[in-house]
Fold this sequence. Notes:
Layout lengths: L1 H9 L5 E4 L1 H21 L2 E4 L14 H12 L9 H11 L1
Parallel strand pairs: 1-2
Amino acid sequence: MTLHLGFSIAKRKSIFFLNSKLLKKIYGEVVSLLILWLKNLGIFLLFYDECQVNIPNPTVDIEKYNQYKYSYLTNKDTEELSTEDIFIHKLKEL
Length: 94
């Protein structure tokens, strides 16, 4: 789950989550954590077994995405560097 969220956030792609109330019942805490995480990122979640006719277009909350990006994916000092450059830099520090 975190890989596709991380990629979408890094590339500022809108995310639309589709889930089931049955899965929420079976996986309880895991789905509850997912729901909290999605709300924190401003990502729309739809339970398909409660599907509505008017489904909103997913939007990107740049501020929330950037907060996630800099907390979990990268930092402002290294975001433009390649993985190779970061690795070599760390080796030189040894």
